[in-house]
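Weekly structure sync, notes
Attendees: PL (lead), two postdocs, one rotation student
Agenda item 3: pending single-chain targets
PL asked that the sequence for the first pending target be pasted directly into the notes so everyone works from the same version. It is reproduced below exactly as submitted, 281 residues in total.
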Amino acid sequence: MSKGYLDFPAIDPVAISIGPIAVHWYGLMYLLAFAIAWWLANREAARPNSGWTKQQVSDLLFYGFLGVILGGRIGYVLFYQFDTFVSDPLYLVKIWTGGMSFHGGLLGVLVTMAWFARRYNKDYLSLGDFAAPLIPLGLAAGRVGNFINAELWGRVTDVPWAVMFPNAGLYPRHPSQLYHVALEGILLFIIILFVRRFNPPKGTLGGVFLLGYGMARFTVEFFREPDAHLGVLSLGMTMGQWLCLPMIAGGIGVIIYSFRTAQTKVKHSSKNSNKHSKGSA
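Predicted structure, written out during the meeting:
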């Protein structure tokens, strides 16, 4: 008779151990995320007339990674541990205690992208389009790391694929980390590539990323265990869901702006063409 849940796979969080040095799977997932972004970015830069050099790609990824680390830590402290920060401001730099926020990391990346665009004379919306496909698979790798670490598990459930996580209580839970992998990782990556095939207006892919991630994360939060010290907030939503709302609104706004700007350019181009044709008649 089936026991109604799956046992958590016996995966050692330490991938490689050499003497006192231990390399964790979670750290390797971060390296994998960076490697995926580096490969995709260089592949795109190698296209004819891409306007990108290998050095620019390396610089973009370096500053983007810096934005993820700094923004992720600052965002986590301000969004999820603000009371701790108020009582102990040095908690902000106590990175060994753990804690990263995707939404904070995103803000960090947006800031570094603005700096990068100014330094290298890149259009900000075009830069967002270039960066959008680089992120989802890296996010998926990070969530796999969360699963291996048996952290950020889901809510208690009786679905057949429920997992009995260690240190998560007596009841099986949603493997919400894998839901993240599927939705905000693999599915979002496929959607961005699909939209790109139609050569959409500048800024569209960046908007699709913001909208797609926001919707995917908002959905998964229904199955993910809320942070113990925050719980469910107003309107029955978690902190993650509240932080996704600006992303969703921003993504919709960027997409609308991109299409309206493109339509305006077409109209102006058509008017100028008509003027020239009348003048030469």
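Discussion points:
- The CA atoms of residues 82 and 88 lie 10 Å apart.
- The first helix runs from residue 25 to 45.
Action: rotation student to compare against the earlier draft before next sync.
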